[in-house]
Design goal:
203 residues, alpha+beta
Length: 203
């Protein structure tokens, strides 16, 4: 039996082993830079679209502010949760961005006989007088945001000559129906069973 020389065995072992592939760092860096540029471009397009929409809505009046002494009397309801968006009433994808209404945020709502006070940490607060409230309903989608059935409290209100749908989500979704009932009573509705009207109704 032929015995292989130790040096020959080492040579065969080295020949059989595959060397690790050398990383092509220039190609990898180029790919990463290209991805960053693409993301930045998409972000820039989104910002330009946001500004363009805001300019189209420049005729929307300034939002009302909380009146002095509010709440004057007992609060009907309070709510802690999230503000999702506002759209043109009946058009769930027509987002309104003027005056900060397009900014999602935390929210504290207070409803009294005077109206609806909307306090948004980090975004613009606003006030909806009782006479401007039109209706409230449960819904599942607004401004492209889709939630489980009844996951949104949508309040319709008049601002200038425009009707606006504003969407809120309580930290405790079971509170939504009480808000629908209270807002509709304040707005003069007797039918408090307004639910799930994603496409909206003619108002």
């Amino acid at each position: 039996m032929t015995t292989l020389h130790p040096n020959y065995q080492l040579y065969r072992l080295a020949a059989e082993q595959k060397s690790a592939e050398v990383t092509d760092w220039s190609a990898r860096i180029s790919w990463v830079v290209g991805l960053i540029v693409f993301v930045a471009f998409v972000y820039w397009l989104m910002r330009q679209g946001w500004k363009w929409r805001g300019s189209l809505q420049s005729g929307l009046p300034e939002l009302a502010t909380t009146p002095d002494g509010f709440p004057d009397g007992e609060s009907l309801l309070t709510l802690s949760g999230r503000y999702h968006a506002s759209t043109t009433a009946g058009q769930w994808l027509d987002r309104i961005v003027a005056h900060g209404l397009g900014t999602r945020s935390r929210v504290e709502l207070t409803l009294t006989d005077q109206g609806l006070d909307v306090v948004r940490p980090g975004a613009a607060d606003f006030f909806v007088p009782a006479g401007a409230l039109r209706e409230a309903r449960l819904d599942k989608a607004l401004a492209g945001k889709v939630l489980p059935e009844g996951g949104l409290l949508v309040i319709t209100w008049a601002h200038g000559d425009q009707l606006i749908d504003s969407g809120f989500r309580s930290d405790h979704a079971a509170e939504h129906q009480a808000w629908v009932d209270a807002v509709n009573r304040l707005a003069g509705h007797t039918d408090n069973n307004l639910t799930s009207s994603t496409e909206g109704t003619a108002r």
